[in-house]
Amino acid sequence: MKRFKLNILIAGVLTLGLFSSCSDKFLNSVPKTSLLDENFFKTEADAEMALVGCYDGYQRTSSAFSPYLVSEVASDECFGGGGANDGRGLQLLDRFDMGQSPADNNVFNDTWSYYYKGIFRCNNLLKKLPAIASWKSADDSVNTITKNRIEGETRFLRATMYFDLVRLFENIPLVTEPTTANVPQANPLDVYKLIVTDLSFAAKNIPADAYPKAQAATNDGRITRYAAEALLARVYLFYTGYYAKDDLGVTKKDVLDGLEDVIASNEFDTIPYKTLWPASSYIRVDSTNTLNKSGYAGKGNKEVVFAQKFNSTSDYNGMGDGNGWIVMMGMRNTNFSPYGKGWGACPVNPQLVNAFPSNDKRRTASVIDIVGEGIESTFDKNDQREYSGYAVKKYSPTALPDGTSDTGGSKDFQISQDQDYVQIRFADVLLMAAELGSSNAVAYFNKVHTRAGLPAVTSVSLSDIQSERRFEFAFEGIRYWDLLRTGLDNAANTIAACAQTIKSAGVDDHVTYDINKIKATRGFMQIPDTQITLSGGVLKQNSGW
Q1: What's the pTM?
Q2: Long-range contacts made by residues 171-177, C-beta under 8 angstroms, separation at least 24?
């Protein structure tokens, strides 16, 4: 079976024409420079190429206001931050309060647009797959293994994009055909049922040996059956927790069995914690103006179950292959190698830093201590809103000792960031299995807990697992959703307890939260005003916004 390497650079070019059509009916010749529906989707190779285009569509969802950034700002882990003279869009999200920035009613327009463009690509491929002639051989048999693998990967991509959208906005259009029609918002249950159906198909139809190995290092970010089983568990836990219902058409046992399959595969394992992220493991070498990267486990490592892939080839002429939100996380205009500069979003809440257990190795791997690491003298606090003394380390841009950007391509720190977003780690698989009642729950918990330098336990409760998740997955875009699935009241109270006085531009800033405003939104974000207008009022704004 011929395999295609996931080359996002090429996919970005190919798919510009791939999903368009020609309206000039008199043009009968086959175009030689464009790939269009009329002269495409003929062979297995065409299907593989279109699948790469779907991966590219998912990659392009990495806008500044991505689900990652929003979940960090909205959680109890971080404040909004940003520049002291910036608009207050981040504060609007942090406090669930339009009064912070009344004109910011469109912050998610790019997010919405890119996600539905990615979903369109998946829907188009899924519609075309059955008609591809080369699935059939001379004896009229059908190569269903390859066809179903491609369909499984495509459906996983559609599912993960819909999962991001429905968690962000809840009330979204459910589009399963390639269409440009105005589609009203669906019942969230119908969206979740499609997600579950897609992931279940992927788990059953992507062969375990579809790629040489399951880890991202060797399959170049391709989706495996194990990724589908793990994401299905995350979907199940969020839905059943937030909605307090179990009506998705998949049982708790089914979900747990899937996680046990991931664990039993022996494809994954935990590795030393600080080696998982560049900024946590790089060491500056001033004498040679380099970074010692030997402590970094690499983009693909044994703990990665699934990652959203990026590279450094982005430019300002349409190539959008970089991680679009990570520059937001960098310390405001501050290069302090190995940390690179950015826009100062998500200052870390000191309450979280202080809550880490004593001797927990995860604290120093997760948090930049601006004072403790000697950075404060170079940090312009007058240019920072909501300065807390701490910044996110796991997803920080990196820089060489001379302050230049440690990226490839154009070395533009704004667009050339190539750090992958690890969507699912093996540690999450272990803790989800423990939460779902595995007979090996204590062993799974201890594998995560003792890696952090903490003593093993002999029993484990749901409260223990929730606490462990808080520290294990700090700043990985998981905490906010974990809070919501414990119940809206608990989530709102936890977020409101972050109220404190910190500094903005050197002046006291009283960060406060209104529990009633958080509850009014039910934890979901505003529908972009542009999309409501374009829909002619078919789309309705979410409550609380």
Answers
A1: 0.92
A2: 171/524, 171/527, 171/540, 171/542, 173/116, 173/539, 175/116, 175/119, 175/120, 175/123, 176/123, 177/123, 177/127
DSSP structure class, residue 333: T
Mean pLDDT of 401-405: 92
CA–CA separation, 145 vs 185, rounded Å? Answer: 35
DSSP state of 31: P
Report the chain's mean pLDDT, rounded to a whole number: 90
State the residue for tokens 């820089």.
399
**Straight-line distance from the first to the last Cα atom of the chain, in angstroms, rounded to the nearest whole number:** 51
User: What is the rounded CA–CA span in Å between residue 541 and residue 170?
Assistant: 11
What residue segments make up the domains of the chain, in order of their start?
1-65+108-183
b vs e for 241-253, b when ≥16 Cβ sit within 10 Å of the residue's Cβ?
bbeeeeebebeee
Q: SS3 string of 395-439? A: CCCEECCCCCECCCCCCCCCCCCCCCEEEEEHHHHHHHHHHCCCC
Cβ within 8 Å of residue 448, ≥6 positions away: 270, 427, 430, 431, 468, 472
d(CA 233, CA 258): 8
Dihedral Cα 421, 425, 431, 435, nearest 10 deg? 60
* CATH architecture under which domain 1-65+108-183 falls: Alpha Horseshoe (1.25)
Q: Which residues contact 347 (CB under 8 A, 6 or more apart)?
A: 78, 79, 81, 384, 386, 387, 388, 390, 391, 502
The neighbouring-strand residues paired with 422 are: 307
Q: Which two tokens stand for residue 356?
A: 């880490």
Six-digit token pair at 461?
Answer: 């409760």
Instruction: State pLDDT tens for residues 6-51.
Output: 333 323 333 333 333 333 332 333 334 455 666 688 888 999 999 9
Q: What is the pLDDT of residues 146-198, one digit of tens each?
A: 999 999 999 999 999 999 999 999 999 999 999 888 999 999 999 999 999 99
Task: Determine how many CB atoms are found less than 10 A away from the CB of residue 412.
Answer: 16
